[in-house]
Amino acid sequence: MVKITDVARHAGVSPSTVSYALSGKRPISEETKRRVEEAIRELGYRPHAGARALASSKSNVLALVVPLRAGIHVPVVMQFAVSVVTTARRHDHDVLLLTQEEGEDGLRRVADTALVDALILMDVQLHDPRLPLLRTLERPSVMIGFPASSEGLTCIDLDFRAAGEACVDHLAGLGHRVVALVGSPPEVYVRQTAFAQRVVQGFTAAADRHGLASSVHPCEAASGAARTVAERLLRDQPALTGVVVHNEPLLEPLIDAFEQLGLRVPGDLSVTAICPDELAESVRVPVTSVALPSAEVGTRAVELLMEKMGGTAVPEATLLPPRLTERASTGRRTA
Predict the structure, then answer these.
(1) CB 171 within 8 A of CB 330
(2) 196-225 pLDDT, tens digit each
(3) pLDDT at site 93
(4) HEC string for 112-169
(5) How many Cβ atoms are within 10 Å of 103's Cβ, its own excluded?
(6) Of 161, 176, 231, 244, whose CB is crowded by the most CB atoms within 10 A?
(7) How far is residue 175's CA from residue 194's CA, in Å, rounded to a whole number?
(8) Which one, of 325, 322, 331, lies nearest residue 176 by Cα?
(9) 241 burial class (0-12, 13-18, 19+ CB within 10 angstroms)?
C-alpha cells in the first residue's frame, strides 16, 4: 500500500509538505503542489478519510443506520447494506455502519461531527422519533422505508402495501375465498415498523375488496412457531386455502408444518410470500412470491443521496412497484 512517505520521496518534499498540499492547512507554492499531485497520481496514493475531510470539508463517508432490533431478519437487512456499500464505493464513498439503537441523540452525535457527509436510515417506523431531527439536519439523508408522513424527507422502498395486495389478488384470482397472513414477529408490529404495517394494510384492503374471509397472525421467526401457527390457523379457519407469508425464516418450516398436518401444497393449500427471490426458489416447493428488491433499493438510495449532495432536487417519495413471480406453491382452489 502506498504511504504518504512514498509520495513525499517521489515528489522530493517532506511528508509534512504532502500533508499540507492535501489539507490546505498551510500555503505551498504552485510548483510544489503540482509535484505532489503528480506523485499522488503516478503512485495511486489514496489519502485516508481524515486527510480528504481536511482538504475538502468532506469525509466521503456515508452513515448507514441499521438498528438490529429484535424481530429483524439480519440476512435480508445485510442484502440492503451490501448494495449500499457497493454503490457508495462506485461514487468513491465509504460507509460507516451503525447497528446500535441510534435515536435522535445518536444521529445528532454523528451528524455534528466531520465523520460523515450524509445518512441513510433503515428500519423506519410509522411515527419514527428520528423524523423531527432529520427534517432540520444540514446533512442530507435518505430513508429506506416510509413513515406515516414523508413530507420534507426523501424516502425509498418497495411498495409494501401494493405487495400485500398483489399476493391476495393472486390468490383471489385462483378462486381462494379464505386467506391468512402469517406476518412478522409481534415486536415488529409493536414498534409500528412501517413495512410490516403496510403489508397488513394491503393484505386486509385486498381481502375486503374481493370479499374474502381473512385474518392476520404475527409470528415469532422460529421453526417451532411454524407448527403452532399452522395448528391455530386450521383450528380457527378450517376452510383456509390460501396463505401469505411475510416472515422469511418461517417460510419453509410453515410449509412443512402444513404438510405434516395433512395439507398438500398447492393441492390443498396455496402459499405466497414476500421475500427475496433466492429464498422463494430454494424452498422444497418453490414459492410464488413478491420479490424484495434489496439491490435496487440500496443502489437507488445512494444515488438519491449523491444527487442531493450535488444540489440536485430529488423526489420525496420513490415507491418501487411489486413484482410477483408465480411458482409451484399456488394453484386453483379445487373445492
Answers:
(1) yes
(2) 999 999 999 999 999 999 999 999 988 789
(3) 92
(4) CCCCCCEEEECCCECCCCCHHHHCCCCCCEEEECCCCCCCCCCEEEECHHHHHHHHHH
(5) 13
(6) 244
(7) 30
(8) 331
(9) buried
For β-strands 324-325 and 288-291, DSSP reports them as antiparallel
Residue of 154 and 56 predicted with greater confidence? 154
**CA 118 to CA 59: how far, in whole Å?**
10
Q: For 224-244, what is each residue's pLDDT tens digit?
A: 899 999 999 999 999 999 999
Most confident of 53-57, 148-152, 270-274: 270-274
Task: Give buried/exposed letters for 242-263 (b at 16+ CB in 10 A, else e).
Answer: bbbbbbbbbbbbbbbbbbeeeb
pTM of the full structure = 0.81
For 327, phi then psi, to 5°, come to: -130, -160
CA angle 74, 195, 331 (to 5 degrees): 90
Q: Decide: 167 and 324 in contact? Cβ < 8 Å.
A: yes
Run of H or E including 270: strand 270-275
Element (H, E) at 33: helix 30-43
The pLDDT of residue 304 is 96
Q: Based on C-alpha coordinates, what's the Rg of the chain?
A: 25
Amino acid 143 reads M
Cα–Cα distance for residue pair 218/155, rounded to 1 Å:
26
C-alpha cell at 248: 422469511
Find out whether the peptide bond into 266 is cis, omega within 30 degrees of 0.
yes
Task: Tell me the one-letter amino acid at 281.
Answer: E
Q: What is the pLDDT of residues 7-65, one digit of tens each?
A: 889 999 887 788 777 766 567 888 888 898 888 888 888 765 555 444 445 778 999 99
